[in-house]
Amino acid sequence: MKILLFIDSLISGGAQSQLVGLAKQLKEQGYEVSVATYHNFSFYADFLSANSIPFICIPKASNRFSRIFYVYKYFKKCKPNVVIAYLGIPGILAIVVRIFGIKYRLIVSERSITQKIGRIERIRFFLYRFADVIVPNSYTQTNFINTFFPKLSQKVQTITNFVDTDFYLPTFIKHTQNKKLKIVVTARFSKVKNTLRMIEAMQHLILHGINAELYWYGNNYFEHGRPSILSDYYLEAVAMIQTLNLEENVFLHNHVKNVNKVYQQSDVICLPSIYEGFPNTICEAMACGKPVLASNVCDIPQLIENGVNGFLFDPNSSLSIANAIENFYNLNEDQRALMGKLNRDKAMQNLSKSVFIQKYIYLFDFLKK
Questions:
Q1: Do 148 and 18 share a domain, yes or no?
Q2: To the nearest whole percent, how much of the chain has pLDDT over 70?
Q3: DSSP state string for 212-258
Q4: Same domain, yes or no, for 21 and 84?
Q5: Is residue 101 included in any domain, yes or no?
Q6: What is the pTM of this model?
Q7: N or C: which end of the chain has fewer CB within 10 A?
Q8: Are residues 197 and 346 in the same domain?
Q9: Per residue in 95-148, pLDDT tens?
Q10: Is residue 23 part of a domain?
Q11: What are the backbone dihedrals phi and psi of residue 363, each rounded to the nearest 5 degrees, phi first?
């Protein structure tokens, strides 16, 4: 079976991470796999090359006016048996190309939570009638589709994210009474990821004498823009740090490839998003045996139980975020270690590669019928 994985770009996002991980697992299962994009960002290109997985940025397809033509041309040349399209626009493109006459089975993968039903959303979900399977990566999105587009419900199969528990490994750090609490966030700088409110929470902590540092790693440029152009939101975050005199407590970094070391060197991982699907950063942190502080939204409470393996907070309140961090700060070393152990155990049981890939193999068997 020849499988083409299709996405807009290979920036350092959660969807991209899962897609290249799926490509590797499919290859290990003996499938013929390739990856195609239409924007020339290649954060994960080295990963694909190291695993001998063909990758192409489709020539001339970055232009949105001629994109359909060049995607059609490439798909016709490639002749895949199955296309797995990640994200909304690539899913729509794969459907349109299929309608134009190229034959393949199509799986469209929903990677985020739909917040509104506007014209674009109605078009997208209308076109999903022409897909074979719709795969949300969260139960929240599955419930949304079943509620607002019930005619699609028979096509929906939820497959949550996986984490490589052989790569993301625990390293337990010994804590001392006066040691600074090292908080790590790995997410792009955006309103959805809630960078500004997280900085405000850090101000609350410092004013209340909490000895803490925040290290945020993420994309700091316009999505699909030139990496040299910093986003306005990122620049606003830099200005806020300066205004609040937090230069010695809050550090903003570009994304890193070896995020495993970043997790291992932290005390706790935080994700203050306004909404999320099934977040990679939490899954990876759990596999690393790290406690997690996160927004009480969407699927996150299925991963994090408040006061057990982390703390939950209201992402719309900087005080709520600060309180959750303070609650963790006040735990002793044994309590922190237990939270981390519970997370590692949960990741091993529920987030493994084997569970993930078997669900896709089941879909392929279904599509053969």
A1: yes
A2: 96
A3: EEEEEE---B-TTS-TTSB-HHHHHHHHHHHHTT-TTTEEEE---S-
A4: yes
A5: yes
A6: 0.87
A7: C
A8: yes
A9: 999 999 999 999 999 998 998 999 999 999 999 999 999 999 999 999 999 999
A10: yes
A11: -65, -40
CATH label of the domain that carries residue 326: 3.40.50.2000
**Relative orientation angle of helices 67-78 and 88-99, to the nearest 10 degrees:** 70
Q: Mutual orientation of helices 280-287 and 14-28 as an angle, nearest 10°?
A: 60
CA distances from 37 to 5, 42, 67, 252 (A): 9, 9, 11, 29
Q: How far is CA 146 from the centre of its chain?
A: 22
pLDDT for 235-286, tens place per residue? 999 999 999 999 999 999 988 888 999 999 999 999 999 999 899 999 999 9
- Write the pLDDT tens digit of every residue in 152-170: 999 999 999 999 999 999 9
Say whether both 212 and 340 belong to one domain: yes
Listed residue (210, 208, 215, 201) closest to 178, CA to CA: 210
Residues 6+ apart with CB under 8 A from 23: 5, 33, 35, 48, 51, 53
Q: SS3 letters for 11-51?
A: CCCHHHHHHHHHHHHHHHCCCEEEEEECCCCECCHHHHHHC
